[in-house]
Amino acid sequence: MRVSVVQMNSGADKLANIDQARALIASAVEADRPNIVSLPEVWSCMGGDRDGKFRQAEDLPPPGSNLPGGEAYEFLRSTAREKRIFVHGGSIGERGGERLFNTTLVFNPDGTEIARYRKIHLFDISTPDGLVFGESRTYAPGDEVVTYEADGIKVGCSICYDVRFPELFLRLRQAGAELIFLPAAFTLQTGKDHWETLIRARAIETQCWFAAPAMYGPHKEGNGETRATYGHSMLVDPWGHVVAKVSDGTGWATARIDPELTHRIRRDMPVVAQRKLV
Hints:
Blueprint: E1 2-7, H1 14-32, E2 36-38, H2 50-56, H3 71-83, E3 86-88, E4 92-95, E5 100-107, E6 113-118, E7 124-126, E8 132-134, E9 139-140, E10 147-150, E11 153-157, H4 166-174, E12 179-181, H5 188-206, E13 209-212, E14 216-220, E15 226-230, E16 234-236, E17 242-245, E18 251-256, H6 259-268, H7 271-274
Parallel strand pairs: 1-2, 2-3, 5-9, 11-12, 12-13
Antiparallel strand pairs: 1-18, 3-5, 4-5, 5-6, 7-8, 10-11, 13-16, 14-15, 16-17
Helix pairs in contact: 1-3
């Protein structure tokens, strides 16, 4: 299986973001012929104010149905069908009452939705440079661990801040995951110190491949403040090696997932069987 991670610089205009995603996916497919393409966290609406996020969010059809969805949902579905690939749709805003959900959607090459994951761990922190993030003011947490199968490989779902909570990834490994997606919009301040370290640690602990498509660069908040995301989208193997990475700016990277390497690492270091504390 060949996996592409797409790096975007989205803003608060959903239709412009869809155009950007469409162009990057088309280029990745033409150049690298991946089996599965992935987008970053909140790629359809980055920044803006709370009201804007609600306007750009979508009411999702029942999972697995053929009922129509919103612009981002239909873009992901039609891309999978037209390109004959799996699309791991990063995450978009899903309407769900007084707060949104930060939701991953996955489509198979027939355009059928095969997985839906709501981000469990919400980013409510203060960074060392004094910026305050309160994701729970807009989003509600999910509560389900989600996996799916793509071309015979079991895939696990996670989003951004989830990476700091290893118990989720151990649950995904116990559920059979061999490849884990981590779409993200990591802040520049935290990303430069923690992004690669955390991904490599989770890959080593779980002996899974990691695919981490990320948001890059500046965006405007609703109050006019400019904030920056770190980028550095990457693919990491089960030994913790970075096998592909996107440079600064928008773009993509592609790597081949090798099940034989996964098997050898797990056979020679059987950490799941040896685990004493859970």
